[in-house]
Amino acid sequence: MSGFIKVLEGLDRRWIYLAMAISVAGPIIYIGLTGRTLPESATPAAEAVYNAIEELPARSRVLFSFDFDPGSGGELIPMATSLVHQCAARGHKMYFIALWPLGPQLIEDTIKRVITADYPHLKEGVDFVNFGYQAGNEAVMKVMLTDFVKAFPKTKTGDASAQVPMMEGVTRASDFPLLITISAGYPGAKEWVQYVVSSSGGKVKMVTGCTGVQTPQLYPYFPGQLAGMLGAIKGAAEYESLVNANLAKTSGDAKVQPKYQEAQRRMGPQLGAHLLMVALIVLGNIAYFAKRREGARASA
Amino acid sequence: MKPSRNWIVVLAVVAALIGIRAFSGQGMGRVFVKAEPITVQVAADARMGTPAQSVSWTRWSAVPAKAYFAAERANPQQTEIQFSWARTMGLWLAAFLTLAIFSFMYRDNPAYRFAEAAIVGVSAAYWMTIGFWDTIVPKLLGSVWPNFVKANILPSLAEQSTVQVVAMWAALVLGIMLLMRLSSKGAWISMWPLAFIIGVTAGLKIVSHVESDLLQQSVATFKPLLALERGADGAVAMAPTVWLSLRNVLIVVGVLSCLTYFFFSVEHKGLVGRSARVGVWYLMITFGAAFGFTVMGRVALLAARVEFLFDDWLWLIDPSGKRVVETLSMVVG
Amino acid sequence: MKRLVPLWIAIIAGFAMLLSAFLPATESLGETFGDVFNVVAAIAFVLGAGSLAKINLAKVSRKDQGWGYAVVTLVCFAITLLAGLGKIGVHPNPNFAALPWSGDKESEGGLFAWIYEYGLVPITATMFALLAFYVASAAFRAFRAKNVEAVLLLSTAFIVLLGRTFAGVVLTGWLPDWASGLRLENLSVYIMQVFNTAGNRAIIIGIALGVAATSLRILLGVDRSWMGSGDAK
Predict the structure, then answer these.
(1) B81-83 and B32-42 beta bridge pairing
(2) Cis amide bond preceding A177, omega within 30
(3) C-beta atoms of B255 and C226 within 8 A
């Protein structure tokens, strides 16, 4: 066995960890210093998300469900930022809820990052509202199907939901023409499809931004039960560039704020890590076949 | 060299690098807050017997470091934007915890175990607190103890119907029974609320899974095997027709062959066996795609943590323009 | 009594939910049962927290191995609980300023929010991030092209890994338009829309059949395994 193969055979796992750390950290530093990002072109699933929001008439009701926690924030926060950005720019009324206990904090962060910072004219209770979290997973969806206020009796700040001005005309889940769930697992996009979209008889359209782990599992629902889907950080980057490009076209201002390019920036380390993964698989197989050939030679 | 000495050397080097970073340029790892005085006039409440009063407090909101630098440049005596000890210590704690978790990659160690033990306690208490304030207070206590909740926590809470009040009393009883699980003698009584949870879940799932996953997914599978796509002139467009038809055929074949593989009541021989083998190929492709996407997801999470260390803590990069390092960007870019 | 009552509770609750999906007259019944379920689910958090405290207190009192970490767990648990239930550092809701308890427990400046931002976020996010390293190590050691199935899995992983980054564009972007379907970025989309969709759809249908059958067995009282050993059929 050659020396190289021997090295591969006995390679300590910590060298692999170090290689992964460098392949991720290197591009982060480069992009962090230069601000350069890689170009993105949108796939049909990401385009469908954009179109679903864009096609709604202004001041439509959009229900956001933040079904994730900070553990998946690296993938999903950029999606949340861009989705709220497009809805705010389009002038939709945004209703935020969470079925994960840590979701309300992420909603607050997104509201501060996008709405408070760039759309200060939007008023809480009139243009957007955060209802916070409710325990019960699918049972919350079940209650929402017939009585939204019963499912979420108060806003996060402690005001009665029924008294929120933008709740006028809202009684049940089907009063929201578009549902956007940002999903990291259970309960999440799959449950929204199963319990709300499928039983609404087409009244509720749903798009989702989901983690990489969930993306393959949700593909069978697209484009039937799911109108659009942002899969993993790549989906977020595609959608982000689509929203930025179109908003720049509308406003005539080509300068994009860095906070709206988070996913695109993250595609740099993604490239480095994916190339490393491919290299590791190839090297692992080289070592495997070399050893197998040597074993066959020895037995012959 | 002994492992413990290795650790001391590594930690000393890291500490020295952090020290150099902390005292060079703009420094690192600081959080600034802006003061916003709030004064609210509260009207007299005859029902509660409280007089009219003025309530004041200061809201402190985190601001980017560049806002502090700008304010200091404009007026070094300003107090509106200040350095926050509490949040800066928090930031350093967050950096320590991040590194403590990463240290597990080298080997198990007390720092990792500390972080692990801490998160278990914090998570359990966090979930309980959220459940208490968001669900138990407005729904349960708001129904069974409405006057107290309205007088102290949620004054605008709506009146509950009798059905709702009765339902919430039932929920309270079931909840207490559930908590009996903590006692060794009364644990059996917790089977009642557990039965309720099982029953409701079963009733919910049977409908949703049949409607959404069995029926609608089956309908989505059986698309025309020859899907004619027409162009603007109404004529059949060959290339799209071929691609779409091929796609529909591949999906039908794939779903049926995978289902055959899952069907164990018939021996996988002959046509069934061949079909099941095709099903296995489809599943392998499915798992390969799942692997690719899983890698993608995990790397994104890692990138976010590395960004936190380099950006928020070490101030080595500034991708979102939180500090004043535009000059560096201009030089490099 | 100990088994009969739970059995009937499960059957009645299950059928109430089932009927509410079909009969509009029973819709409110399903809604009420759902609401009770939500409150019981919130109380389950209290049970979880109590159980954790009980186990760790026992560990400390017995001085089990690693009991010091149980102390860390208990201290962190107590501080978080105190910060959250006591709303420490939280200001009142401006609409109800006279009520000190009316504020949002997670509002900025409070101790609970501080614990979230500087304790919960870094640990949970980094724990998930660790998996990037393990998946790399596992790929190096376990991904072997031993047979047709493994080759299919590996090839798909390659296409997805390369096709979902800029590498795909660099490697196959030169392909002419008539062969654009073979570009890695398009190939990865095609795999997801066709092969992955078929595979996962079969899994979804299989699971749906399993869930429906199991639920039905519970509702009819045939499956009693959830009540523990002895009564399972």
Answers:
(1) antiparallel
(2) no
(3) no
Q: Which of A32, A101, A198 sits opposite B317 (nearest CB)?
A: A32
- A16: helix, coil or strand? helix
Give the count of beta carbons closer than 10 Å to the beta carbon of residue C144.
16
Give every strand in the sheet of A228-231, ordered side by side.
A128-133, A93-98, A61-67, A178-183, A205-210, A228-231
- Tens of pLDDT along B141-170? 999 999 999 888 988 888 889 999 999 999
Enumerate the β-bridge partners of residue B52: none
What CATH architecture is A44-256?
A: 3-Layer(aba) Sandwich (3.40)
Task: Spell out which residues of chain C touch residue B61, defining contact as CB-CB under 8 Å.
Answer: 108-109
Amino acid occupying residue A226: L
Residue A284's Cβ-side half-sphere holds a number of Cα atoms within 13 Å equal to 21
Share of chain B above pLDDT 90, in %: 58
To the nearest whole Å, the CA of B13 is away from the closest chain C CA by: 23
Every domain of chain C and the residues it spans: 143-233
Tell me the pLDDT tens digit for each residue of A249-283: 888 777 888 899 999 999 999 999 999 999 999 99
Residues of chain C by 3-state class (helix, strand, coil), percent to 5:
80, 0, 20
ipTM value for the complex = 0.93
pLDDT (tens digit, 9 = 90+) per residue, A58-75?
Answer: 999 999 999 999 999 999
Cross-chain Cβ contact B317/A28 below 8 Å: yes
Closest alpha carbon to A44 in A218, A238, A179, A224: A238
Tokens of B260: 């055959």
Average pLDDT value for residue range A210-228: 93
Residues of C in contact with A150 (CB under 8 A): 31, 35
Residues B316, A28: Cα–Cα separation, whole Å:
11
Q: Which residues of A touch B216 (CB under 8 A)?
A: 198, 224-225
